[in-house]
Specification:
CATH topology of the largest domain in chain A: Multidrug efflux transporter AcrB transmembrane fold
CATH superfamily of the largest domain in chain A: Multidrug efflux transporter AcrB transmembrane domain
Strand content of chain A: 15-25%
Number of helices of chain B: 11
CATH architecture of the largest domain in chain A: Up-down Bundle
Structural class of chain B: alpha+beta
Number of strands of chain A: 21
Oligomer: heterodimer
Radius of gyration of chain B: 26 Å
Shape of chain B: elongated
Largest sheet of chain B: 4 strands, antiparallel
Largest interface: A-B, 88 and 86 residues
Helix content of chain A: 40-55%
Shape of chain A: elongated
Helix content of chain B: 55-70%
Largest sheet of chain A: 6 strands, mixed
Radius of gyration of chain A: 35 Å
Strand order of the largest sheet of chain B: 3-4-2-5
Strand content of chain B: 5-15%
Number of domains of chain A: 3
CATH class of the largest domain in chain A: Mainly Alpha
Distance between the termini of chain A: 32 Å
Number of strands of chain B: 6
């Protein structure tokens, strides 16, 4: 009797399910499948549902069409700007302390300055060291400072530390993302996604955008706006031929020509609160009307009061847009930029000024645009391949294994529904390679069943009874199924980690497919078999 | 297992040919890895006039470029090599081509990859492959003995080498999806190898006195029908993708078809299993055909750890 009890328990292990366990399995599978439901309804219908039920699969840009731009923040510009700031600080500090110096210059990654009198060196070092601030790390003070200061025989070298530069780059990317967001929204593009990629990159994806030319033009502008005085001490030609005064520089005009402009900024674009495209009342040409905040308005008023009759330059990204003469003080904090714009140019400039300046220039390093026609074709192709592939596999399994093949097909059907359910839960992106992943999963998912059935066949051949063979087939095959699927899953995981866009979509569906097919093999297929065995009490195995 | 005397030299030779192809024939690297521009355009009126289009783009002096009929007669694939002058220069080139072709065509797909991204993608792809191989090696090492892990690795690197050779020979575009294909082939053909290894391990435990070649033969035979059925279902899926999945993933599915169906099956039977002999698995067995304790044709008798209940007695117990 003891032996009999042992064997019964063993059968319980593989082919017997308690009622609540069977129910739990079915409910779990059913609920996961339910998550796929929102995909079959229109966007507007789904929006009325509770928010947890709204999650659905997002079509990748390769399927719905759209444009994906990878932008890189110019880290060299950030570095240069940081050096320039240190250079300015050195000048200010030494002048304030009245310490004579020579040979102040930027060399490579550091600023060098030679202190003239050796008696001043200690004083100068102390003052310059005050420029360097401690950096805070993740856990409070990191012990690093923003600038490394070194001295050698009167030559003081100030080098911004790598940690400080990295922090600046991080801030620059954060600010850029915010500004890109504003610019893209101003352009009226629908549902853009903007996210950081790596250290210095930003990924901008805009569904439905067919020609990203204008978007690229808008994102490619730094939009750094300054109001500065034109230097009238000599003509630009003279300055180019000889040497420009130290506090001025030669800038090109947007519509040709050269200007000698003071480096000192009267008011900058950061003080703008609004900019709107409009038309000049007299000439009727497109202009941009802008308004300063109170600080900007006050400074602009002061500057224009002092310089009536002189020209000032409106400088955008180091190009002079126009250089009008100040006819009277501008006290209201409002102004107008004219520069023989087209309507579109005035419009874009207003957008740029409203959204603010980028902290550093951006470059497009990768662009992928798919037109809506190709996307639609790809969806159709993917659907066809999926139907044909599924039909072939289902037919083949039925022909090979008969009734058991039917069981396998049921399991695969539920499996595919569950893949869609899980993808919806994750709000995953479905791409064309992703569809390929699902089709491939159908082929691979039946493998679990094949392993089990072949093992059952073997056990039958070895002389076991039907039920006993089924039981043994399951218990032996499951370990193999686990081992063989984990290797493929590792490959999918690595692919997810290194891949981007469409390839990542493939990794997701392949990985999810492996997990759901493991679930169906370990629970659903077994459950179906268990019920079949209980109902039919088979004497022979129909394979 | 006698076939290893034939299959090993054949595989060695094919691998050498594949490596030679890689070095002397090269791979047809796509823009993902060498940078440049790829445009898929569709002419709006009638079939595309390739000669005229070629002249239009040629007049822009953008260096190497190629035009290719792609699917339907009005679909054209334009490839423009990477422009000198960094990431910005690529953008300028695209703008000029768009300007030159104007509105006579629909731009179905435009992809521009700058030099800074392409070098990264290539190194990411390579790192990914190596990482996957290492991760799987470690997993197999934990689950089996080290000889099995090493054997599986040799067998599957052999798969990858042959697949790369195939890609070189057929000049399929080698891009990011190719890396995806290679990784899937790796995962999938390992799947097959692991199934056989699982059986070999089981047999090693059960038949202590069976000679190694006989044991391997029995293991391969026992799993053969499963291998055939599974490969057929996967082939059917891939066939559907190849025929109906569209141009965009054709090179991807073709590569998978070669790697999974042709190479994967061959490798697990003819390379992965016999290599265990060379790696010294079961070297301390008695070997030879003297007194095998059970005929390998009936491998699965009642396991020794269960009580000696025969199937008939068990069945009686149920009633």
């Amino acid at each position: 009797m003891g032996r009999v009890a042992f064997i019964t328990r063993k059968i319980e292990a593989m082919l017997f399910f308690t009622r609540w366990k069977a129910a739990a399995i079915l409910i779990a599978a059913f609920v996961i499948c339910l998550f796929a439901v929102p995909n079959f309804f229109s966007e507007s219908a789904v929006q009325k549902w509770p928010s947890w039920a709204q999650r659905h699969i997002v079509l990748g840009l390769d399927l719905q069409g759209g444009s994906s731009l990878l932008l890189e923040v110019d880290t060299n510009a950030v570095r240069k700007e940081r050096l320039q700031a240190v250079d300015d600080d050195v000048l200010r500090v030494l002048r304030q302390a009245r310490i004579p110096f020579t040979g102040r210059a930027i060399h490579g990654n550091s600023v060098e300055v030679h202190i003239t009198r050796s008696t001043d060196i200690d004083n100068a070092l102390g003052k310059l060291r005050d420029l360097s601030q401690p950096l805070s790390g993740i856990l409070g003070a990191s012990g690093q400072r923003s600038i490394d200061v070194a001295e050698n025989g009167g030559l003081i070298t100030l080098t911004p530390s790598d940690a400080a530069i990295t922090e600046r780059i991080r801030q620059a990317v954060d600010q850029s993302i915010e500004i890109i967001q504003r610019r893209v929204n101003e352009l009226g593009l629908v549902e853009p996604t903007i996210q950081r990629e790596g250290v210095d990159r930003i990924l901008v994806q805009v569904p439905g955008l067919q020609d990203p030319t204008r978007l690229k033009a808008i994102l490619g502008k730094t939009a750094k706006l300054d109001f500065r005085m034109v230097d009238l001490s000599m003509s630009p030609e003279q300055a180019a031929a000889t040497h420009a005064p130290e506090d001025s520089e030669i800038l090109e005009g947007q519509n040709g020509g050269k200007y000698l402009v003071e480096k000192r900024v009267l008011v900058s674009g950061a003080d703008l609160v609004d900019a709107q495209p409009g038309f000049d009342q007299r000439t009727n040409e497109p202009v941009v009307n802008f308004r300063f905040n109170s600080n900007g308005a006050r400074r602009f008023a002061e500057a224009t009061q002092q310089n009536v009759g002189k020209p000032f330059a409106i400088v955008l990204d180091n190009q002079v847009v126009s250089a009008p003469v100040i006819r009277e003080p501008i006290l209201g904090g409002q102004g107008q930029i004219s520069g023989s714009f087209t309507v579109q140019q005035a419009n874009d400039l207003a957008i740029l000024l409203r959204a603010g300046a980028l902290p550093a220039p951006l470059t497009v390093v990768e662009e992928r645009t798919v037109g809506p026609g190709l996307g639609q074709d790809s969806i159709l192709a993917g659907e066809h391949a999926a139907y044909v592939g599924a039909a072939l596999v289902v037919l083949f399994m039925f022909v090979t294994y008969g009734l058991f093949g039917l069981f396998a097909n049921i399991a695969v059907g539920i499996n595919v529904a569950m893949i869609f359910g899980v993808l919806s839960m994750l709000s995953a992106t479905l791409t064309l390679p992703g569809i390929a992943g699902i089709v491939l999963t159908v082929g691979i998912a039946v493998d679990s069943n094949v392993l089990i059935y072949e093992r059952i066949r073997e056990e039958v051949r070895a002389g076991r009874t039907a039920i006993n063979a089924i039981d043994a087939g399951f218990s032996r095959a499951l370990a193999t199924i686990l081992d063989s699927n984990i290797t493929t899953f590792i490959a999918a995981a690595v692919l997810f980690y290194i891949g981007s866009g469409p390839v990542r979509g493939f990794a997701v569906t392949l990985g999810v497919g492996i997990l759901t097919s493991l679930f169906t093999a370990f629970t659903l297929t077994r459950l179906i078999m268990a019920y079949w065995v209980r109902l039919w009490r088979p004497r022979t195995v129909p394979i | 297992m006698r076939f290893r005397r034939i299959s090993f030299p054949i595989s060695a030779m094919l691998s050498i040919i594949a490596i030679l192809l890689y070095f002397f024939h090269g791979l047809n690297f796509g823009i993902d890895f060498i940078g440049g521009t790829l445009m898929e355009v569709q002419t709006k009126a009638g079939p595309a006039d390739l000669a005229k289009m070629r002249a239009t783009i040629g007049s822009l002096h953008l260096g190497d470029f190629s035009l290719q009929q792609f699917g339907a007669p009005n679909d054209v694939l334009i490839r423009i090599s990477e422009q000198p002058g960094g990431d910005q220069a690529q953008q300028v080139a695209v703008q000029r081509v768009r300007g030159a072709l104007g509105s006579q065509v629909d731009y179905r797909r435009v992809e521009v990859v700058g030099p800074s991204v392409s070098t990264e993608l290539l190194s990411y792809g390579t790192i990914g492959l190596v990482l996957a191989i290492m991760a799987i090696l470690v997993y197999l090492w934990f689950r089996f003995e080290w000889q099995f892990a090493l054997g599986a690795m040799i067998a599957n690197v052999h798969d990858l080498v042959l697949t790369v050779g195939f890609m070189s020979l057929t000049r399929v575009d080698f891009d990011l999806t190719s890396i995806a294909a290679l990784l899937t082939i790796l995962g999938y053909s390992l799947n097959d190898t692991v199934v056989i290894y699982d059986r070999i391990r089981e047999m090693l435990r059960r038949y202590k006195r069976l000679s190694m070649p006989d044991l391997l033969n029995a293991s391969v035979n026992a799993t053969l029908s499963r291998s055939i059925v599974t490969h057929l279902t996967v082939s059917l899926s891939l066939l559907a993708l190849l025929l109906f999945g569209g141009e965009a993933i054709r090179s991807f599915t073709a590569t998978m078809m070669f790697g999974v169906v042709l190479v994967g099956t061959y490798t697990s039977v003819f390379i992965a299993s016999p290599i265990l002999i060379y790696l010294g698995v079961g070297a301390n067995r008695r070997g030879g055909a003297e007194e095998p304790d059970t005929p390998p044709e009936a491998p699965s008798t009642v396991p020794s750890q269960t009580p000696a209940a025969t199937p008939t007695r068990r069945a009686r117990a149920r009633r």
